[in-house]
Amino acid sequence: MIPEISLQPSVGVRRRMLVERVIKGVLAAMAGVTVVTSVLIVVALVRPAISFFGDVNFLEFIGGVDWKPLFKPPHFGVWSIFVGSLWVGSIALVVAIPLGLGAAFFLSEYASPRVRSIVKPVLEVLAGIPTVVFGFFALNFVNPNLVAKLWPVGDVGTYSVLAAGLVTGIMILPTVASLAEDAMASVPDALRQGAYALGSNRREVSTSVVFPAALSGIVAAVVLAASRAIGETTIALLAAGSKAQLSGNPGEEGQTMAGFIGFAGIGDQATGSTGYQSIFAVGALLFVVTMLLNIASIRVVRRFREVYE
Asked: What digits encode the pLDDT tens for the residues 270-282?
């Protein structure tokens, strides 16, 4: 007589299955919180922005260069503070990309395990410094003496877009270095060993093998750093100044979109007024710029992603 075989899972298996379902539910809830938060941010920006554009012509907002929303009569040409944000973001990337990638190459390809265990935590500590500290560093150390030496064009005052961009670049440097180093570390050692077997030196392996293989992760790191640089508020508020002007000289004072939001948000604007709603219109524009950067990053990552088995 053949004994009956029970198809019911054991108590231990049922317990593990229950734990897996609970973990899956918790993770799904966390993902849902991020989606809901993003939707709420969009709603919080869009509703006042629509009211703002009911009073201000959209073409005047996008194409105008005179940004004086808190004056009488007000002017809402956002181009001057948009260019200020581009100045700060571009200068920051000029600082962060070469230094960050250099640090990533050193940590990934040249540094010994002991040196890496010291340098990388220091970079991560730099990433944890509050931005207000960077702002005061830019205000008291970088501006105006250092900026006057680096950029001897025109009169450099207490505030300058160049100082804000330089210090913002230092702030986002750990982001570029850490994420790029992680991308390089994920490249299989077999590719390196194969290049060394063909007679390549360490520089050639780094630039011709590791860099192309990790390009998608490096691009993602740069775009994330660019998003942070364009949206940085405290450094721009303390170092760049609050004078919105369309200038081709980064040694002069300027204002960014994020800086205006921080400056106007603590002002005495009446809730519901056009000047108050301009904060949300600029915030919506900043959100769109950041979203476009991330969309471009996703496309580039998919284009250059390398999959290894």
From this structure: 677 777 888 888 8
CB 222 within 8 A of CB 300: no
CA 29 to the chain's CA centroid: 26
Give the pLDDT confidence of 63-121 residue by residue, as tens digits. Answer: 888 888 777 788 888 888 888 888 889 999 999 999 999 988 888 888 888 888 888 88
HSE-up of residue 6 (Cα within 13 Å, Cβ side): 4
The CATH number assigned to the domain with range 63-304 reads 1.10.3720.10
Alpha-carbon span 162 to 157, nearest angstrom:
11
Q: Residue 286: is it exposed, middle or buried by C-beta count within 10 angstroms (0-12/13-18/19+)?
A: buried
For residue 157, which of 149, 166, 148 has the smallest C-alpha distance? Answer: 148
Spans of all domains in the chain: 11-55, 63-304
Q: Name the CA dihedral angle for 141, 142, 143, 145, rounded to a multiple of 10 degrees.
A: 80
Strand ranges (DSSP E) for the chain?
A: 67-68, 75-76
How many Å separate Cα 122 from the centre of its chain? 20
